[in-house]
Every structure is written in structure tokens, then in C-alpha cells.
Amino acid sequence: MEILKNNNSDFENLNQWKYKPKYTSVETEYGEINIHYIDEGSENTNTVLLLHGEPTWGYLYRNFIDPLVEKGLRVVVPDLPGFGKSDKLSKREGYTYEKFVKWMDVWLNEIDLKKITFFGQDWGGLIGLRLVVNNQDRFDNIVLSNTGLPTGDRPLGEAFESWKNYSQTVENFHIGGIVKGGTVTEMS
């Protein structure tokens, strides 16, 4: 499996995205992947960790970052592997829930966040809740949106299965249209 590096020039001149990129390397069975994140505000204060879902990336939180920093908080926003400015794998089968949890757990411990208020949306909630369980001493608060914690004892429902089928089989996955369909603010 090949690790695909980003051409960061694709992300230049994004509206409302002025943040300095940071990267942490995480060793995987495929080699080293770089996980992109932004880290704004003072390192000596409480941290808000914003973890996106699918099919978005950290840009989703562009309107959260400055107001939280202005309130005196540190704000950390990673891009999950395969999304945004983080490295991608060349084949879909390289991505599993367990691998995302493992990779992000290594990332979290590498950058050594503490006093965290976790906000997770969609897949970010599923992955982040496992991070909370694995690192309870690092987290103070949890806020969740559009997510859950599947127990495996019952099906996830028809809507989820329809979305999963669509996302895995559609020939051209038009992320912009999907995001726009769930957005009330005019997109630029």
C-alpha cells in the first residue's frame, strides 16, 4: 500500500483558513504517515480538541477556532489520516475504525495534550470517544454532535447502511455537494 503525500499548494488561499500547519508522524504498518493539525492559543491553558467526521476535514471548524482562542482556550484541530492535509493511503482497505483509533491515539500522546474538552462530530466522535477511554487522565469534558457509540449488539439502521453503501460504491464522490447539502451558511 502506498502512502500519498499532499500537495499543500492545493490548500493555499482558502477563505477563513489562516492557520499555521503542523504535522506529527505516526508509524503504521504501511510506513510513516503525517497527520496534519493546527494548534492555536496558549499551551498553558485548557485545550479544546475538535475532531471532524467524514467526508470533511479540520476546515469544518474554521468558525470555531478564533472565538475559542479569544476566550483564552487552546484549540487543536487535526485532520484524520486520509482527509484534509494529512497523508492518504492508496487503497480504501487500509482504513479501518481500529486503525483510525490507533493512529490518533499515537498522535494524541505524541503531542501530549492535557486538560482537554473534546468535541467530536460524526466519525470524529466515534474515534474520539475511544481516545477518551484510552486516555482518561487527559480529558476533562466531552461534547458530541451527530455521532454515537455503537455497541455491536444491534444494527446501525437503514439510513446508516444506505449512506455506507452510497459512500463506498458511488463512482464520483462529490464531497462539496454533500457538504453544501448540509450547510445553512452560504459557501464561498
Secondary-structure blueprint:
Blueprint: E1 3-4, E2 22-28, E3 31-40, E4 47-51, H1 62-70, E5 74-78, E6 88-89, H2 97-111, E7 116-121, H3 123-134, E8 139-145, H4 158-169, H5 175-181
Parallel strand pairs: 4-5, 4-7, 7-8
Antiparallel strand pairs: 1-6, 2-3, 3-5
Structural overview:
This protein has a single domain, classed as Alpha/Beta hydrolase fold, catalytic domain (Rossmann fold). A six-stranded mixed β-sheet has the order 2-3-5-4-7-8, sandwiched between helices. The protein has helices at residues 62-70, 97-111, 123-134, 158-169, 175-181, and strands spanning 3-4, 22-28, 31-40, 47-51, 74-78, 88-89, 116-121, 139-145. The chain has 188 residues and is an alpha/beta fold. Helix 2 packs across helix 3. The protein has five helices and eight strands. Helices cover 29% and strands 23% of the residues.
List keywords for this structure.
single chain, 188 residues, alpha/beta, Rossmann fold, 6-stranded mixed β-sheet, two-stranded antiparallel ribbon, 8 strands, 23% strand, globular
How does the overall form come out from the CA principal axes?
globular
- Please state roughly what percent of the residues sit in beta strands, choosing from under 5%, 5-15%, 15-25%, 25-35%, 35-45% or over 45%: 15-25%
Structural class: alpha/beta
* Portion in helices: 25-40%
Mean pLDDT: 91
